[in-house]
Amino acid sequence: MSSNNIALQIRSTTVTDSKHFRTGPEQRNEQFWPLHILCEDGPVIAINKPAGLLTQGGPPGNPDTVTSLVKRYLKEKYDKTGNVYLGVPHRLDRPVTGVLVLARNSKAAARLAEQFRERKVRKVYWAVVEGIIEVSEGEFTDWLVKHPDKAHVEVADQHHDESKECRLRYRTISVVNGHEGRFSVVEVELLTGRSHQIRVQFSSRGHPIVGDVQYGATYNLPMISGSDNFRERPIALHAQCLTILHPIRYDELTIEAPPPTSWGKWMNADVNR
């Protein structure tokens, strides 16, 4: 899958090394979340977000979000006093895993947010969907409408007042035929970035993402250990790779994240992309 051209490309760096930290809960009996640091490069910090963890803005009584955990990590690592700044230039849905980029100062956060807003970031996902996709690679174009009160997105007519055009490019990595069913592992490059876009575009074609009950999946993934919250159930959608321009150097920085180990039944880390 060819990369989009990005202006001001001076050099390219791919980050695959990572560090693991274990962050404890702030209150008793809460879940321990692994903090998987993929990249620390100046003001840029990226993690491999686990399923079930909100990016920010958790409900009262549940302080654990990506931002709270990363702030705690930075506070301890750099022995900071007072509040720790952390910018959030983009988000991942709660049940989705993968690369999430954050910023340690406001200038970097603004520059990264602008890249996402102007679609200068290359975003590649891996997904496991139900069924075998008849055409092994291609593009999907739809018009989607978001219902904020329901946190739900639907395909709509392009003339609908609130519909927005959504496009993605995909290719099938592998096909799985087993006793549990038939599945396709696909690589997806987002050409637009809408809420629930990948989930809805595949589901509307009869190929819901594994575990995504909200959009019609019939095959579930196990609940996250220690949790009985249905919203924390993972889905087989993973932000595998993000390519940004470094907000200080303006060189191309590619950050990759390995998929969850539970994906072993469908693929392995040496899959040929």
Describe this structure in words.
The chain is mainly beta. The chain has a single domain (12-262), classed as Pseudouridine synthase (2-Layer Sandwich). Helices cover 11% and strands 34% of the residues. The chain is built from three helices and twelve strands. It has helices at 66-77, 106-117, 197-203; strands at 12-15, 19-23, 33-41, 44-49, 97-103, 122-130, 137-147, 152-155, 164-178, 181-190, 237-245, 252-256. Strands 1, 2, 3, 4, 5, 6, 7, 8, 9, 10, 11 and 12 form a twelve-stranded mixed sheet that branches. Strand 9 and strand 10 form a beta hairpin. The protein is globular, with a radius of gyration of 19 Å. The N and C termini lie close together (8 Å). Mean pLDDT is 84; it is low at 1-12, 24-29 and 268-273.
CATH architecture grouping: 2-Layer Sandwich
What best-fitting shape do the alpha-carbon axes yield?
Answer: globular
Structural class: mainly beta
What is the chain-wise order of helices and strands? Answer: EEEEHEHEEEEEHEE
As for the CATH topology, it is: Pseudouridine synthase
Task: State the helicity in percent bands.
Answer: 10-25%
Profile the largest sheet: 12 strands, mixed
Low-confidence regions: 1-12, 24-29, 268-273
Percent of sequence in beta strands: 25-35%
Q: Quickly count the helices.
A: 3
